[in-house]
């Protein structure tokens, strides 16, 4: 009876052990699943954050849709702007050509102003030359008077022969004659300079006759030197001569100026040749100006277009900023598309995860029940081990007694 009860209990224990083995196997599976659930929960938390981000992304994507519609309009406008900018580029190229022409015209006008100044200076020089003609006429009158004086000097020469004072005067006269020789050279140079003027040619012929006579006059002056010291009339004439010498010095300066003017006139001749070329060009320019007049008429129309273009350019600048922003938005949208694809996969996974979490929740409920059962099983296991030991001892004792 006792053995039958023990065997019955043993069979029950075997069943319990099998059940416990199944429970342990399930427990191991549950441990794996709980680890997976922990990962799933961690992922689900991440997914929650990502879904919040996705909500923001979808809100942004709606805004992006509106902006892309605006961008489509902007792109359509930009195509129009490209055509207009090509037209503007042609206009700007024409305007640059016109600017060059205007610069050349400005240079020509500047040269013309310089020529006007030179002509004014030449007019002043011509006015001075007319004054010089009058002065040369006065000099001719003075020379006529000097001939009369020579006659008087011949009469006076008989009275003033042995004067000591005249020696000093002769020395002074020698210096004067030395100066007069220099003056003769200067007059020769002046004669060459004045030879170029038609008006002066006549006067130089007269002066040439008077230049031949001063050699004769030198001899007379030596004789007259004794008389000149006491001649009251000669004092007046020497004053006049001093004025003439002062004028001659001024004339020397003016001849230097004339030399500079002649040098300038040579330059002017070259410039006039250039001007002739410029005039030839100007005739061409006249034709071009007619064309320019048409261009100006067009340019007035173009001004209106340019004003419109200015507005368009202002809009275009705004559009450039917006396109930069759009480029950034498009770059972001490309990233967003990738992220939305990833998010779509994540959402698909999250739906699966929700189902799995529901299953996991059921498993957790079951797991709690199993934990309770495992505690009971552990108690049964401890009892079963004790019973096994007792049964082993009992079987050994029974076998010994049976023997």
Could you characterize what this model shows?
- The protein is mostly helical and 403 residues long.
- The protein has a domain of 175 residues.
- Helix content is 96%, strand content 0%.
- The chain is built from five helices and no strands.
- Helix 1 packs antiparallel against helix 5.
- The longest helix has 171 residues.
- The protein is rod-shaped.
- It starts with a helix and ends with a helix.
- About 1% of the residues have low confidence.
Q: Rg from C-alpha positions?
A: 65 Å
The profile of the biggest β sheet is: none
H and E string:
HHHHH
Rounded to the nearest angstrom, the distance between the terminal CA atoms is: 19 Å
Helix content: over 70%
Mean pLDDT: 60
Structural class: mainly alpha
What's the structural blueprint in terms of helices and strands?
Layout: H1 2-157, H2 165-194, H3 198-212, H4 214-228, H5 232-402
Helix pairs in contact: 1-4, 1-5, 2-4
Summarize the structure.
The protein has 403 residues and is an all-alpha fold. The protein is built from five helices and no strands.
Features:
mainly alpha; 0% strand; 403 residues; rod-shaped; 96% helix
